Amino acid sequence: MSNDKVLYFKPYPFVVGQKIYIDGGPRKGDWEVVGISDRKVKLRCPISGKKLEWNRFCYFAEEREGEQWPHID
User: Fold this and answer.
1) How many Å apart are CA 3 and CA 43, to the nearest integer?
2) Which of 57, 61, 36, 34 is nearest to 45 (CA)?
3) pLDDT digit of tens for each residue in the chain (73 aa)?
4) Apex CA 15: angle with CA 10 and CA 20, to 5°?
5) What is the DSSP annotation of 24-45?
6) CA distance 31 to 52
7) Rounded-to-10 torsion of CA 57, 59, 69, 28
8) What are the φ and ψ backbone dihedral angles of 44, each rounded to 5 degrees?
């Protein structure tokens, strides 16, 4: 048996009302968590108001205090 470097990932425990920023991929941008189920997360765009529901996909990377939200490029 070998000793290898192994990365562990856990689904993020979303809470309704959280303001999140997804840094990359097709969901990139600012979102607010507006609904949660065991398998799905419903997000709302703070600019357009559009709501989308996806399979739970996010993994926590870091939390930052004092960040501007939504992001303005």
Assistant:
1) 40
2) 34
3) 778 887 677 778 899 999 999 888 888 999 999 999 989 999 999 999 999 998 886 666 677 888 888 887 6
4) 80
5) SSTT-EEEEEEEE-SSEEEEE-
6) 10
7) -50
8) -125, 130
pTM: 0.73
Q: CA-to-CA distance for 5 and 19, rounded, in angstroms?
A: 33
DSSP assignment letter at 69: S
Read off the tokens for 45.
Answer: 């765009």
Q: Which amino acid is at 8?
A: Y
Structure tokens at 39: 């398998």
Tell me the three state secondary structure of residue 65: coil
| Secondary structure element (H or E) that encloses residue 19, with its range | strand 19-22
